[in-house]
Amino acid sequence: MKVNHAEIVISAVSKKQYPEDQLPEIALAGRSNVGKSSFINRLINRKNLARTSSKPGKTQTLNFYRINESFYFVDVPGYGYAKVSKKEREKWGRMMEEYFQTRDTLRAVVLVTDLRHDPTQDDIQMYDFIKYFDLPVIIIGTKLDKITKNKRQKHINRAKQVLEMDETDLFIPFSAEIGEGKDEAWSALSRYIKR
Predict the structure, then answer these.
(1) Which residues contribute to the annotated binding site?
(2) Annotated binding residues for GTP, as ranges?
């Protein structure tokens, strides 16, 4: 997909702040610092629309990015960052649950994981959380460029096994650094962003 226009519309903390234009939405979930912002930036060919940070826990709101005036990427707070207070984590959890449970325009969730490592218990819980709400899920295994080519399939198979992925769910190895997996990601997303 060629992206001609991309902008952040709002950083929301409750549903009364969500955009009201009824465009389809794709949520992006994953651990803190796993590469959700880099994934967005690579897909839209921008360096800094979604701000990246070496400091985990940067995203603390639901960030709505309108793409080509036709759909939204919604970056949700990362999970698994120990230095965030329990109270703050609970607040994020309620905010995300409200979004996943009530948002009619939410079409699918992209779960971003680090392909170099086995999915964490938090990744497994998020996958199960998404499945509980009966939402389509696409797993993106980031940092593909950091794994030697002869070990990639082993890492992919292991991630699928640890997540106990449904056969119908898609797993896409991805590198924000070199763009590998970008076309496959757009292809998978395209079925959910048509009105």
Answers:
(1) 30-37, 57-61, 75-78, 142-145, 174-176
(2) 30-37, 57-61, 75-78, 142-145, 174-176
What does the pLDDT read at residue 55? 47
Q: Residue with structure tokens 């919604």?
A: 74
Annotated binding-site members for Mg(2+): 37, 59
Residue 54, SS3? coil
Q: Rounded to two decimals, what is the model's pTM?
A: 0.89
pLDDT recorded at residue 56? 44
Structural domains in the chain, sorted by start: 6-193 (3.40.50.300)
Question: pLDDT band at 73, cuts 50/70/90?
Answer: very high
CA distances from 153 to 3, 30, 34, 65, 173 (A): 30, 21, 20, 32, 9
Distance between start and end Cα atoms, the chain:
16
Q: Which residues of 154-164 are buried (b: 16+ CB within 10 A; e: fewer)?
A: ebbeebbebbe
Mean pLDDT of the chain: 88
- pLDDT at site 195: 59
CA–CA–CA angle 171, 142, 38 (5° rounding): 125
Nearest CA-CA partner of 92 in 102, 79, 105: 79
